[in-house]
Structure formats: structure tokens, C-alpha cells
Amino acid sequence: MSELLDYETVSMGAYAEKAYLDYSMYVVLDRALPFIGDGLKPVQRRIIYAMSELGLSAQSKHKKSARTIGDVIGKFHPHGDSACYEAMVLMAQPFSYRYPLVDGQGNFGSPDDPKSFAAMRYTESRLTPYAKTLLTELPHGTVEWGPNFDGTLNEPLWLPARLPNLLLNGTSGIAVGMATDVPPHNLPEVAAAVLHLLDNPASEVADLCQFIQGPDYATGAEMITSKADLQSIYESGHGSIRLRAVYQREENDLIITELPYQASGSRILDQIATQMRNKKLPMVTDLRDESDHENPVRIVISARSNRIDFDGLMSHLFASTDLEKTYKVNLNVIGLDRRPQVKNLKVILKEWLAFRTETVRRRLQHRLDKVQARLHILEGLLIAYLDIDEVIRIIREEEEPKEKLIARFKLSEIQAEAILDTRLRHLARLEEMKIRGEQAELEAERQKLEGTLMSRAKLKKLIRKEIEEDTEQHGDERRTLLVEREAAQVMDETSIIPNEPSTVVLSKAGWARAAKGHEIDPLGLSYKSGDAYQHHALTRNNMTTVFLASDGRAFSMLTHQLPSARGQGEPLTTRFNFKNGALPIAVIGEAPNSNILLSSSAGYGFYTRMENLYSKVKAGKQVLSVPKGFSAMVPINAHTEDDIQQYVVCVTSAGYMLVFPLSELPELNKGKGNKLINIPAKLLKSGEEFLLGTLVITENSSFLVHAGQRYIRFKWKDLEHYISTRAKRGNKLPQGFRNADRLELE
After folding, report:
1. What is the value of pTM for the model shown?
2. Is residue 15 annotated as a catalytic residue, yes or no?
3. Could you tell me if residue 76 is inside a domain?
4. Sheet holding 544-549: strands in order across?
5. Which of 33, 551, 560, 673 has a CA that sits 20 to 30 A from residue 254's CA?
6. What CA–CA distances, in Å, run from 641 to 156, 644, 663?
7. What is the pLDDT of residue 484?
8. Which of 109, 136, 160 is the last residue of a domain?
9. Which is catalytic among the residues 15, 23, 26, 122?
10. How many angstroms separate the CA atoms of 46 and 538, rounded?
């Protein structure tokens, strides 16, 4: 006979789904999201409650943080001590919490590194005066209690917050499938909105935004999000806001005095210093941190002169560093129905008012119950005093005095117990007068409590009064100011770099460098062993330099980023990816709108604008299509004057020269181009003849054709024999120069 099974079979899929859903709800409700009533997550609530149980009020001495954390994890929160301690530290950091709940003594971190706090065995802590708003009414029957994790103790399921702590301190957290990001706010503003909603329940979010200007962060700074965007965030419950550092100018210095929330001053210094090292901030000469105890934030940026655009510089830094940050807003909280939901501002305040109203009602009812119980006892004591001799006789003579008292004077058990517990010293006549006086006071209090509980107007008045009193005690000025600013923009590097003359020198091995001025002799510079001069270009620091490789690819970079000519430069292979062994053959540094003649040794070419050669990638840009076996030629600047006729000079390796108008060539962005000079296909293919070089001249120009150590000078009047149309064969150079090796424009 088979045994009866005491378990059920569940598929792995169903079991995993249920387990994951249970875990998800646990993370959402018991770890990551705050409750709308007290604005706290469970770990925060348990820390504050444990500290109150240890007597760590704002008036007490500090105690070791390890003592608090030990109580928290031992009694209420069975999780890691480091995570629990970090949660407590966060509530003690004045730069993290708008209204800190814990008063820390010792190293509790810094704005630069909030997690640099000392271990809990070194620090001490107690509650702040503001924390009283969460705890004052705890003993007065205002909250529900539940068992702790092992069922040996009870803990409050929420704290009876007298102020909307959820909005005041904000919170952030990540659950399973959802997150929350509630920004902090200013107490007087939130209180004013709550009181307005208390008197005007039909108010909309737009009405409440008349009181709440926007979030108010602990570190100040400026909020540049528009009021319309803020209202949209409060209406939808989600969005993003932008904070910007506060600065002032002192002569040539910019002084940053406030940073955005959770922005690290040391990280910002590193970001600015990196730009300075990369020569992206040439107008900045010095950067230092002068922060101290009196000035928690004082970052000094020294400018080269007082003529620079200081506002433009700060706009650039706002756009490129953490001096301006964006923060998410996601008002996802656990409501009074114990369910998570993204709520708008009105719903949050309305639910908190309902929570506060119920809390006050429970507090009043709890006190009323106590008053009525005491009045009941006092009534029994007075009965006893009226016939004290009989009471004494019954107590002395009867074996069951309690039952006899109840029967004789028609008392309740509670009244009889109170009479039996009365000491002999309290049987004096004066004590009877005290009881009658206490009875009168309690009766007046009972009537007041009942009147408040039965009148909605009186209840609202009481709630208003208490909120106003707490606001008066804990409220302060707004720290984060709302300011309308233009959007930050990164400066165009060419506009912030000094417009100084520069000479870019290229070597045969592909090493490049830049020298100040145009008077330098490139041939006189020192080169690495086995290397030599290849080409150079006269340009300016704030312009873009283009390097053309033999395969027709163009590579560009800002001139000021090149290494100084005091050394031997650096290989361009470290900055760019050259393909198939191609090396740079020329450097160009003309203005973006300049016309550049591009040609290949195969005898083809076109002209294009300089800006078409710019490339933002390391692989460069294929501008000139070069037939296999041939090479790109040195680019030539073609002047842009419309009223001057320009001509192209072509010379082949066999000594043929052709001169034709530049206008016969097409303007292309890229490509192979058109035939410049006619080289027989047989000679071109065999390599016996190729295009040696090109020039662009005007009728006022003169140029040299070199053949070894000799050269011949050509002026316009000497070119009649060579002028023709594009793609012609041209004519032979004079005897002795038919083995020409280069051209040079005078």
C-alpha cells in the first residue's frame, strides 16, 4: 500500500514565476519605494525608530553608530550592516538630505565623495530636531504595529509624520521593473501648498505650483528648467530638471560658489584640467580649488585677460562638465492603498492630507479613550471617598473585598482595582480635592476632544495650526533659485583658439609638428635619423590642417593640437589609420572656402573647396581616387578671386608642359577628376611617363622648373608656346629641362 503524499507537484515555470513575483513585490514594498505617509523606505524607518528606542533624541548625547546599526539589524532589519549604515549616513549628510534626520559626529563623507565616510565604529550619531516631526506622535496610537522579522518584537508599519517628508527630503530607489526619483523641496513652500489644498480641495496642480516653485536641493545651485516644464512634471509625475552651478566674476577670475546636487568638485576640476591639457581652453591660465570650512565650494578659474567672453566660457563649461547636470523626476511612491503608482503633485499632497487627517484623528481618539478611562476611575475613587469608613471596613473584614466593593457601591472591576490600589496616604481630605480638580480638567478636555472629532472645521483648524507651528520651527529659505538661462553651448574650438600664425611641417616618415610664426625654415629643423623634410604649410592656430596621403585620402585635425616644433613632432600614425602602407605626402592649411587643386600622377584632377577635405574619423576621407600604381600629387591652392583668370600648369616626367584655364576643370567634392594633360596610355601604363607636378598661376605669376641643380624661370610672356586647352599633349620643355624633377612657384 503506497504512502500518502503530503506535498503537491508544481511545474518549474509556475514555481519560478510565483517566486519572482513574490520577490518583486517584496523589493517594491519593503525595500526600494517610499511610503507616501512618512516618505521613508523601510530601512530608514527602522533606523529612526531604533534610534528613538535608544533614547537618541536631539537633546541626548551622541552614541556610537555601531550601537544603532547593531540594534537595527538585530531587531528589525536582518540585512547587511554596511548597507544599513550607508542608509543612516545618507540621512546625516547635509549635502544629500535637504532636512537631515540624523545628526552625525565624525567623518560622514564629503560632497566630493559622499561614500568616503568613516566606519561605524568611529562615528557617533543621534536624531536631529526635525526628526521629532516623525516620532512625536508615535506613542499616541497613531500607527499600526506589526511583528519584526522573528516575531519577538513589534515595529511601526509607518511613522506619524507631521509634515510631508516625502516631498521635503525626496528619495531615489530602484525596484524590480520600476524606480523612483522624488526631488527634495522647500518646507515653507510645501506647507503653503498643503494648507491651500486643505482649504481648497478642488485646487489643481497649476494652483499648487503658485506656492511650490520647484525642487529645492541641499547644495543650492540654479534651476534653469522653465516654470512651464516644472508644471508639466508636477502634472504628469515624471520628467527631468537641470541644475547649473552658481558663479561670480572677480577681475580675471571666475569663482564657482555652488555646485549642482551630487556634483563632485574634484571631478569637475579634473574635467576642466583635461580640457586645458588638450588645449581646448587656451584662454584659461590657472585652475585651483580654494574650498575650506568657511567656503565649502570655491573653485577659481583664472582667465588670460579681461577681454575674453567670460559668459561664453562658462556656457562652454556648463555644456562640457558637471557644472550643469540633469536629474530625473519620477514620483513613483507607495500610496495609502499600499500600491506603487506614479502620482502627480495634487494626488501626493491630497493623499498625505488624508494620511495626516487620519493620524490626527487617531491621536485625538487615543487621548479621548485615555481621558474617559481616567474619568471612570476618578468617579469610582470619589464614590469611595464619600463613604471611606465603609470602604475601609470591607477591605479589613471581607475575604473577597473586590467583589464586595463592586456589589456594595455598584463599581466596575477597574474602579474596584483602583480603590484597592490606593495607598493609605492618599486617603486624606486634600486628596479628594485633587481628584475633583483633575476630574474637572479632564471633563473639559473630553468635551474639547469630542468637539474636535465631531467637527470637520475644528479638525482642519487643528491640522493647520500644527503644520504652521512645525513650519515656523523647521522652515528655512529656499536654496535652489529658479533662473531663466540660455541653453549651454560648447564653444567652437576655432573661436576660442588664439588666431596666431603657425607653420606645419611634415617629414618623409610621416612625422608632423607646428611652429609659431611663418618665419621658420622647415629645412633647417632637426629630423630623426633616416628622416627628412617632406612638405610644409603656412596656416594659423585656429584653422584646420589637412594631411593628404599618397592614396588620395585626406586626414584633418586642428592646428593647435599638433605638437610643438621644439621637438621632432609625433608620427601621424598614432592619430590616423593609414591604409596599405600609404604615407602623407603633403600638408594643407588654407581657409575652409579656399579652392584646392587635387591631382594624381596618372594625369587626372579637379578642384574642390578646402572644407571638403575635412574628416572627423581616424580612417580619413577618400577625396581623390588614385588609379593603382600611381600617387596623389601635392595639392595646390587655387585663389578664389573671381576677377582674376587662373591657369593650371602641368609638367610630365618626359618634359611635356601644358598650360590651360582652371575654369576648364570641374569643381567636385571627390572623385578621380578629368584628364589634365594627355599622356599616351602605353607610356602611362608602362610607367615611362607620368604627371610630375602642377601649379596654379595668374598672368602676373612666375614659376621655376627644376632639373637637378639647374632651373629655368617662366613668366607669362614665355608661355605662349604652351597655352592650349585641357587634356592636350602640350609641348616639350627647352633642351636640358626635359628631365625636370619639380616645379616651384615664385
Report:
1. 0.76
2. no
3. yes
4. 584-588, 544-549, 553-558, 621-622
5. 560
6. 86, 6, 13
7. 86
8. 160
9. 122
10. 72
Specify whether 521 is located in the same domain as 626.
Answer: yes
**Virtual torsion, Cα 373, 377, 378, 383, nearest 10 deg:** 140
Closest CA to 354 of 194, 465, 469, 234: 194
Task: Check whether residue 253 and residue 156 sit in a common domain.
Answer: no
* Residue 677 resides in a domain: yes
Last residue of a domain, one of 130, 160, 190: 160
User: Which CATH number is 104's domain given?
Assistant: 3.90.199.10
pLDDT in tens, 191-235: 999 999 999 999 999 999 999 999 999 999 999 999 999 999 999
Q: How far is it, in rounded angstroms, from Cα 327 to Cα 213?
A: 17
**Cell numbers given for 701:** 605669376
Same domain as 739, residue 600: yes
Q: Cell 522573528 appears where?
A: 150
161, 39 in Cβ contact below 8 A? Answer: yes
Is 224 within the bounds of a domain? no
Spatial contact of 306 and 252, defined as CB atoms under 8 Å apart: yes
Can you tell me which residue has the cell 627644376?
706
Between CA 355 and CA 734 the distance in angstroms is: 105
Q: Pairing between strand 647-652 and 253-258?
A: unpaired
Rounded Cα distance, 390 and 492, in Å: 103
Planar angle of CA 668, 693, 698, nearest 5 degrees:
70
Q: State whether 253 and 150 are in the same domain.
A: no
Domain count, the chain: 3
CA dist 168 and 170 (Å) reads 6
Would 692 be classed as within a structural domain?
Answer: yes
Q: Do 634 and 535 have their domain in common?
A: yes
C-alpha separations of 162 from 166, 249, 365, 534 in Å: 11, 43, 17, 80
Which percentage of the chain shows pLDDT scores above 70?
97
Instruction: Based on the fold, state whether residues 568 and 707 are members of the same structural domain.
Output: yes
Amino acid (1-letter code) at residue 608: T
Q: Which three cell numbers stand for residue 152?
A: 519577538
Residues 6+ apart with CB under 8 A from 189: 211, 212, 213, 216, 478
Strand order in the sheet with 656-661: 691-697, 647-652, 656-661, 731-732
Write down the residue that cell numbers 494620511 correspond to: 355
pLDDT of residue 28: 67
For residue 653, which phi and psi values (nearest 5 degrees)? -70, -15
Q: Which residues of the chain have pLDDT under 50?
A: 1-2
- What residues are paired with 537 via a beta bridge? 504
Domain coverage including residue 690: 498-745
